[in-house]
Write a structure and sequence with these properties.
The complex is a heterodimer of chains A (about 280) and B (about 210). Chain A has about 280 residues and is mainly α. Chain A is about 65% helix and about 5% strand. In chain A, strands 1-2 form a two-stranded antiparallel ribbon. In chain A, helix 1 runs antiparallel to helix 9, helix 5 packs antiparallel against helix 6 and helix 8 packs across helix 9. The radius of gyration of chain A is 20 Å and the shape is globular. Chain B has about 210 residues and is of the alpha+beta class. Chain B is about 65% helix and about 20% strand. Chain B has 7 helices and 5 strands. A 5-stranded antiparallel β-sheet of chain B has the order 1-2-3-4-5. The relative contact order of chain B is 0.12. The chains are: A mainly alpha (about 280), B alpha+beta (about 210).
């Protein structure tokens, strides 16, 4: 009953916040990323979309920015996360990487990914991608057994089964829910209303919630998986800061385009691989 | 008569074939490949290695890059409508600053990679534009997709945008420029660019 109340509140929130904003965005001039497609030249994949993206060719280029009315607040949290990165996450990572060799950290990354299979499985199903859902299920079964509790990834190395990352934010996007306003959240990082709802739902799809009762254990798991991820891709944030003139805007744009690509890929993939 | 027909047929076949190879040899991927290979070769050239040869190495890499990349088009697209209000000197100044930033950022990044392999996956042409899809396999990171968006400048294909895992590099700078231009106008943007480039100078002199 409690879970039901939770999901009800979640959905109510989603429709109140995302629905109208998503619509408002559409009724205004089209968002920058929305590609106008001629009827006979429908893009079949991402490469075609690149060619249809005329963001300067036209004199009447839409100069619309990503919907970010909370920018002042977001910038504060961006700074908070920046400090968290340099004062907490980075020193943690330095120690962590010094103690654990790359192979071990890579295996821990595999383990973390394997535990998150339910999220990918459920969301592939919710997007009717039966083939990808099957791949995720096979990956889980193979890696949990042959891969020794998921520390190895024989599913990919031996069977060539690549993970099919899907989360609830992507599922909502797939079914046409708008992004809503952009959010830069403390600790979590870049997000938007839709993906925040998605993130919250994913927390409840993760087995951790049902098997671990102590908050401290879940929190430590989150911190370790976060530090581990950083230790495997140490340069990402620092490069972003190094190469950009306004890291806040740069990150917002990366997040926007990366998420949109993930969601759009779905429809294309669906057409080619997942036809029923 | 029969020989004439045969001859004509041969001629047609020859021209079709020859024309085909001609078109293929100047296609986007065929133009892109030597540019990228040339740049990587120059970066890995043992004669130009080390920080002592940085100046010479960068110069060589950028000479090759200037043939395959259209920095004017990049500057134009990155500035959007502000570009139209600038005079020739301002445009040149901006282009040199932006090119320097790209050099600092991306050539600097490439210099850090130990082993990298570019696999050409697909190519698409539409009018004056083309897109070439590649996958970069590196020993340091997981493989990632990079698509090059190119423009046909009088028969020569030149890159004006890179799309890394769905994220357009040019649009990213464009959004940043827009945000700075809104507050500090063109003069402010020039100042920020100069300051940014200066950070790379101090970094490399250390």
């Amino acid at each position: 009953m409690r879970r039901f109340t939770y999901s009800f509140i979640l959905f109510a929130l989603l429709f109140v916040l995302c629905g109208p904003i998503g619509c408002a965005q559409k009724s205004n001039s089209a968002p920058v990323q929305n590609v106008e497609v001629e009827k006979d030249m429908e893009p079949v994949d991402a490469l075609d979309e690149l060619l249809d993206d005329d963001f300067f060719d036209d004199e009447s280029v839409s100069e619309e920015v990503y919907y970010d009315p909370l920018e002042p607040m977001n910038r504060v949290f961006f700074e908070v996360n920046d400090k968290l990165y340099y004062w907490v996450l980075n020193p943690l990572n330095a120690g962590y990487s010094a103690v654990l060799p790359w192979d071990v950290r890579f295996s821990i990354g595999n383990f973390v990914n394997n535990l998150a299979v339910p999220i990918r499985l459920v969301n592939n199903l919710l997007q009717l991608k039966l083939k990808d859902a099957g791949i995720e299920l096979s990956r889980f079964l193979i890696n949990s057994t042959l891969g020794v509790y998921g520390f190895g990834d024989p599913a990919f190395l031996e069977f060539g089964l690549e993970p099919k990352p899907e989360d609830f934010g992507q599922t909502l996007g797939y079914w046409g829910i708008g992004e809503g306003l952009y959010l830069c959240l403390p600790v979590v990082g870049p997000s938007n209303v839709r993906d925040l709802v998605g993130f919250t739902a994913d927390v409840y799809t993760h087995p951790m919630v049902y098997y671990v009762k102590e908050f401290s254990v879940s929190a430590s798991y989150y911190v370790v998986s976060r530090v581990n991820l950083l230790s495997l891709n140490p340069d990402v944030y620092e490069d972003l800061k190094k190469y950009s003139l306004d890291p806040y805007v740069s990150m917002r744009q990366v997040y926007l385009e990366y998420r949109r690509k993930r969601i759009n890929d779905n429809t294309m993939q669906l057409r080619s691989d997942n036809e029923l | 008569m029969n020989t004439l027909k045969k001859g004509l047929l041969l001629l047609t076949v020859f021209f079709l074939f020859y024309g085909g190879t001609l078109a293929a040899s100047s296609g986007p991927s065929e133009v892109l490949k030597p540019t990228l290979e040339g740049m990587i070769d120059a970066i890995r050239d043992p004669a130009l290695a080390g920080s002592d040869h940085k100046e010479a190495r960068r110069q060589k890499v950028m000479t090759i890059a200037a043939r395959g990349f259209d920095f004017t088009e990049m500057s134009k697209r990155a500035l959007g409508k502000t570009w139209r209000k600038l005079n020739q000197d301002q445009r040149h100044h901006f282009e040199s600053l932006f090119t320097k930033l790209l050099e600092n950022a991306y050539i600097g990044k490439l210099e850090g990679y130990s082993g990298q392999k570019i696999i050409y996956k697909d190519e698409r042409i539409k009018g004056k534009k083309a897109a070439v899809a590649t996958v970069v396999e590196s020993t340091d990171t997981a493989p990632f997709t990079v698509s090059y968006v190119m423009l046909n400048n009088g028969g020569n294909w030149q890159v004006y945008d890179l799309n890394i895992e769905g994220v357009s590099f040019l649009r990213n700078y464009r959004e940043q420029f827009k945000s700075i231009l809104r507050k500090d106008k063109f003069a402010g943007l020039v100042k920020v660019l100069e300051e940014k480039n200066a950070t790379f100078e101090t970094e490399s002199s250390q």
